[in-house]
């Protein structure tokens, strides 16, 4: 079976590495960024680098691992070119916008909308890792609109990556992800911008930042080409989340200014409850 | 040499464990929280649990490892009781407020104001860890006001913990820490409060939260009794930092709402520069 991966960055590259290691697939790849393409080639991430058209023609399964706005834009044209034995899967972080673009496409049933919940703050082919997906969850959206054969082929690949797949409505997926992923990226970007602005002495950031700051600001290292389109594709849910974040932040500041430390303690104890809701 | 540690939580307990492992010190301890005291006793964190008065009387070096507002309150009374061969060191996260309380105390020179830059989001004696401080930085504030002998004794202990000590003005310390530590705690507490409010389906937090969210919200697990007093002691610097954070957040939201993804990308690229300023 031939698998074609379009986009050989952190996600596409990591998928390629794990699938290559199984020895069961012929892997084709392409990347519109010439630097990424040549890096991927020198790292032997796929068996062969080909053009987009050749990849679409020669692959049984085509994986789209590039920014979400480009997926929305290119997906209809890719579906135009495939036959009914081929399958296309995307691995983007938002789903409703992408699905809107192909809702009435005659090959809609050959498409599977997926979001493997894994990543790091790094990007590009050099960031690709073995076992990035192992033990993580994969979300498949609006699976009733995918043909059973297409779904089966996609599930086989996510299983090979060591993922467990769950099914969810695309709108629900995007709403939940705004809260538990996209909002935390923005809080981290804003933390970085703020500290860079107000800490005039950059050496002190280096000297005094402990593991706590490093952890909170980690996502601020995330790639702009990936995240700007995600935020835009999920704007409504995200603005709702940001409005509430701003409300809670203003409340926290007011409580601090009141100098009633018992009220600050109460807010912190409320925040502490997150311990019970996340695993690590 | 006898070392007395007042407060046997994460920080005091971790200091005790490392110093005990050297086999070179007799360790006394006390904790005003009876549960913490009995847990510390059952974990053998110190050689002997004693009363506060007995600890102050019998220790060559007294380490204050409890919340910063209580340090400010108790320190003058502890200095009242010591002789000029004894040394008192605190390990609190803010320094100016504490030093203000003893500025004119006749035993001021026997006090060393320190802040070992290490910790985790956990608390209490069960959170105490071996090697928590190893390879980390320790800040000593306003060292010119400490007697050379007191300073030497304190440095010996921080060396034994594997720390490198740096010297800094207390006001500067508090300002920098507001930016690189206290602000990130608040952004994390507020993220936790927001997600708990808007994500009505708690199971989805558990299911969909990835390592990114876990990293950004990690500090929201931090102890209320420790952090509410730190924020209060450092209020002016912290409010300045929060005001700027709110300004940058509003700016980020406006850019998102403008739907110009190239402007969002520009903000993210600016945020990405934090890569060059922190080590991990």
Shape of chain A: globular
Q: What's the CATH topology label of the largest domain in chain A?
A: Rossmann fold
Largest sheet features of chain A: 8 strands, mixed
What's the CATH architecture of the largest domain in chain A? 3-Layer(aba) Sandwich
Helix-and-strand structural type of chain A: alpha/beta
Taken as a percent bin, the fraction of beta residues of chain A is 5-15%
Task: Write the element-wise H/E pattern of chain A from the N-terminal end onward.
Answer: EHEHEHEHEHEEHEHHHHHH
Number of strands of chain A: 8
Radius of gyration based on Cα positions of chain A: 21 Å
Instruction: Kindly give the count of domains of chain A.
Output: 2
Biggest sheet of chain A, strands in spatial order?
3-2-1-4-5-6-7-8
Largest interface: A-B, 96 and 96 residues
Mean pLDDT of chain A: 96
C-alpha end-to-end distance of chain A? 37 Å
Which bin fits the share of residues in helices of chain A?
40-55%
CATH class of the largest domain in chain A: Alpha Beta
Determine the oligomeric state from the structure.
homodimer
């Amino acid at each position: 079976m031939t698998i074609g991966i379009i986009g050989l960055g952190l996600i596409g590259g990591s998928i390629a590495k794990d699938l290559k290691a199984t020895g069961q697939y012929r892997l084709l790849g392409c990347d519109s960024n010439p630097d990424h393409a040549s890096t991927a080639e020198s790292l032997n991430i796929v068996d062969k680098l080909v053009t987009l058209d050749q990849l679409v023609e020669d692959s049984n399964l085509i994986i789209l691992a590039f920014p979400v706005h480009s997926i929305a834009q290119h997906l209809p044209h890719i579906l135009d070119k495939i036959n009914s034995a081929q399958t296309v899967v995307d691995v983007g972080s938002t789903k409703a916008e992408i699905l809107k673009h192909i809702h009435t496409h005659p090959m809609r049933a050959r498409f599977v909308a997926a979001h493997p919940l894994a990543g790091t703050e790094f990007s590009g082919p050099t960031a690709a890792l073995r076992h990035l997906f192992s033990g993580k969850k994969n979300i498949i959206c609006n699976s009733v609109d995918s043909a059973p054969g297409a779904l089966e082929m996609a599930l086989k690949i996510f299983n090979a990556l060591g993922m467990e797949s769950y099914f969810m409505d695309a709108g629900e997926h995007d709403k939940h992800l705004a809260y538990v992923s996209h909002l935390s990226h923005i809080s981290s970007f804003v933390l970085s911008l703020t500290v860079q602005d107000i800490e005039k002495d950059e050496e002190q950031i280096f000297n005094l930042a402990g593991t706590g700051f490093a952890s909170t600001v980690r996502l601020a290292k995330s790639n702009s080409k990936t995240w700007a389109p995600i935020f835009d594709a999920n704007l409504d849910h995200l603005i709702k989340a940001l409005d509430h974040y701003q409300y809670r932040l203003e409340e926290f500041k007011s409580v601090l200014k009141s100098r009633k430390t018992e009220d600050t303690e109460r807010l912190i104890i409320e925040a502490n409850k997150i311990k019970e809701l996340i695993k690590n």
